[in-house]
Design goal:
This protein is an alpha/beta fold. The protein folds into two domains: about 160 residues, Aspartate/ornithine carbamoyltransferase (Rossmann fold), CATH 3.40.50.1370; about 150 residues, Rossmann fold. The strands form three sheets. The protein has a five-stranded parallel β-sheet with strand order 9-8-7-10-11. A four-stranded parallel β-sheet has the order 2-1-5-6, sandwiched between helices. A two-stranded parallel sheet has the order 3-4. Helix 1 packs across helix 13 and helix 4 crosses helix 6. The radius of gyration is 20 Å and the shape is globular. Bound molecules: phosphoric acid mono(formamide)ester (CP).
Length: about 325
């Protein structure tokens, strides 16, 4: 059993990134590996990239793929042990996981946080319960606090486009109109640190991320100071960790533009998508020559493929 939920599940992150790049250069060379194997992809939340890149990655490996939008098509699941199921929950994860394990050779799940119960979200209660009761490997397609397939794709993108061995990488908070999870930002910080990258995180006061993911990174509240000499600028909105799930008002203008980017080292722009244009990032940067957003999305194919390939080969990640 070898699950993929975090950088901590990976023995050597740098090697995995390099193997993904090798796979990208030969994407049809492993189509025999998944013959007669099936992956089940379970979505409790919407997706474009994760759903389709995971399907395509499995197909590149010759696997069968079954997708279920659990939130709309499945029974309402009970995740708590010992629950008296006399409410609106119809099936316990204990039973569902055993059944799914008999159908699939590996299971992917997307399960966003509540953003109301920090303890439950940060204990990763949902994906942990699936792992607990499943007898096949589980892949996170974004959990309550982490998005490892996105981060692995981001690492691939940085390796492909870095102009020096130790680039300055800045993760900056951006404005948004909705309340978003911290998963992409936590995860990016975790993977950058697993690679020993030079990471600066900049955000307004009140938007600090969970310390377990940011220790080791430079925290700089002045966006303009943080951007100085940046080689990569990763742009993302997130809601507050404390008070959890809140979106305190921000007076300063945190929307990046070409002028702010002038202090960077011709910095390359990253965003996981979907992006709200001209709210999180302006068209001028998203469509400009230094935008990596579509390369990141393309690399989602290879982050998913390398993880599935390792599982098929039953090799430790
Ligand atoms: N970046 C990302 O996970 O995209 P989706 O939510 O569309 O899957």
């Amino acid at each position: 059993m070898n699950n993929f939920t975090s950088a901590k599940d990976v023995k050597n992150v740098e090697e995995l990134v390099k193997e993904a790049i090798v796979f990208k250069n030969n994407p049809l060379s492993f189509s025999h590996l998944g013959k007669n194997k099936t992956i089940g992809l379970l979505f409790l939340n919407p997706s474009l990239r994760t759903r389709l890149s995971s399907q395509k990655a499995a197909q590149l490996l010759g696997m069968n793929v079954m997708v279920m939008n659990m939130d709309k098509e499945g029974w309402a699941l009970e995740w708590n042990d010992g629950a008296v199921m006399d409410g609106n929950k119809t099936e316990h994860i204990k039973d569902a996981a055993m059944v799914l394990s008999s159908y699939f050779d590996m299971i992917g799940i997307r399960c966003f946080p509540s953003l109301t119960d920090r303890e439950a979200d940060y204990s990763e209660h949902v994906i942990s319960q699936l792992i607990r009761y499943s007898t096949v490997p589980v892949i996170s397609l974004e959990s309550a606090t982490l998005h490892p397939l996105q981060s692995l794709a981001d690492c691939i993108t940085i390796f492909e486009r870095r102009r020096n061995k130790n680039p300055k990488i800045v993760l900056t908070w951006a404005p948004h109109v909705k309340t978003l999870p911290q998963a992409v930002s936590n995860s990016f910080a975790q993977w950058m640190q697993a690679l020993g990258m030079n990471l600066t995180i900049t955000h307004p006061e009140g938007y600090g991320l969970a310390p377990q993911f940011t220790s080791g990174a430079v925290i700089e509240h002045s966006q303009q100071k943080a951007l100085q000499d940046a080689d990569f600028v990763y742009v993302k909105n997130w809601s507050a960790y404390e008070p959890y799930g809140q979106t305190p008002a921000v007076k300063e203008n945190w929307l990046l533009d070409e002028k702010k980017m002038q202090v960077t080292n011709n910095g390359l722009i990253m965003h996981c998508l979907p992006v709200r244009r001209n709210v999180e990032l302006p068209d001028e940067l998203l469509d400009g020559p230094r935008s990596l957003i579509h390369l990141q999305a393309e690399n989602r194919l290879y982050s998913a493929a390398i993880v599935m390939k390792k599982m098929l080969e039953a090799k430790p990640l």
